[in-house]
Predict the structure.
Amino acid sequence: MIRLACSVPRKVVLACSGGRDSMSVLEFLVRGRREVTVAYFNHATPHGEDAEIFLREFCDRQKLSLVCGYYTNKNKTKKPTESTWRTARYQFLSQFNDPVITAHHLDDVVEWWIFSSMRGNPNLIPIQREDVNVIRPFLLSRQRELHKKFREYPHIEDPSNKETVHTRNFIRHEIVPKVLKINPGLHNTIKNLYSSSE
């Protein structure tokens, strides 16, 4: 069952990567007759180009408005990090007047909680951002529920999602499965933290 963490306005912007998560959320919004602008941030990687082409063609077929932003590496001697990409992405999303929806879900919340715990500051992904007009309605829903209910739209996956060199991917593929053997109810445990933090 899809449980929303907050209401979804009629007119929204969707931060969309073209991956399964964001395409499922796009289907949810279109089925719900929301007026959607698709926002794509190109990270200037080979996959970034492929995903932009995919989204341009899809949005053209579906008569959806698409706005693209582009990452520029100002320090050519340094490889961009997940943090620099994230900062640039939110700078791009800050230009929109309508609320921006991201496709973050409960599985992301669990990964972030583990990641932040290892840094000594366990915390939840906030439902709303204070500095940018961003809302995350799907934080109380599992990824598999989104994929099962909203699976008609095609998608394009970033091959790097399977690589465990990035900390978040290592947590997703290596740590979470082991933690679930100790606490199979981990997702509900973390989800309940939202109600206890209110």
